[in-house]
């Protein structure tokens, strides 16, 4: 059985130190085989924040899989944003903005959905491009039948009704239409700092909130998700920061029938 830990929006620069230490304790206890980090590793993409993030990553005794978020691009250093937007990411984190990783049991497909600019005022918004959609569908077309297929992207493909004012990822409808029925099992995202799991078009959407930062929405604690199971049955547990520890808050089980996931 595969055990994956999904954390997000760590936001080095706005870290809650006790929560970061609690996360390290939880990692030791849960012993996941992989830690998935869905972007916004830093707050302002400074060298200092990246250095702190890199120190945290190198302290992990677990492999990690990471994609960037909009906060990993500089907002205020405009020349850097337009000329060499990912310089600090590539220097401190890794050269690859869109990693891929696979085992016999699962395939992780990472995409970079943050954009340095767009034809809109809010540049925190993200997008999935036609070439990224094609890249994902091609990767899945060669996958073994029993291998779980996970897409990792910072920006959300679905939002709970009360949060629909936040923008969904651009290109979402085209992406979902392309992924539907092609074997994609899970989409893991962050960005909105809320945690939830939801089945959409037979795929599971799983969001972690901000795992370690003080950028919390009202009544929304720091959180992470644990994904356990295989291509036929998955349990996703959401863990919330409560009374000085991450504690199991909600558990949902999903089953796959005729290529579609359903909540059990
Ligand atoms: Fe964030
Ligand atoms: Fe974000």
From TrEMBL:
Pfam families the UniProt entry points to: Metallophos (PF00149)
GO molecular function, one term: hydrolase activity
Family matches, as SUPFAM superfamilies: Metallo-dependent phosphatases
InterPro entries for the chain: Calcineurin-like_PHP, CNP_phosphodiesterase-III, Metallo-depent_PP-like
Keyword terms: Hydrolase, Iron, Metal-binding
Residue ranges occupied by any Calcineurin-like phosphoesterase domain in the UniProt entry: 3-194
Database matches in Gene3D superfamilies: 3.60.21.10
PANTHER family cross-referenced by the UniProt entry: CYCLIC NUCLEOTIDE PHOSPHODIESTERASE CBUA0032-RELATED (PTHR42988:SF2), PHOSPHOHYDROLASE (PTHR42988)
Family label: Belongs to the cyclic nucleotide phosphodiesterase class-III family.
Protein name: Putative 3',5'-cyclic-nucleotide phosphodiesterase
Protein species of origin: Methylophaga aminisulfidivorans MP
Organism lineage string: Bacteria, Pseudomonadati, Pseudomonadota, Gammaproteobacteria, Thiotrichales
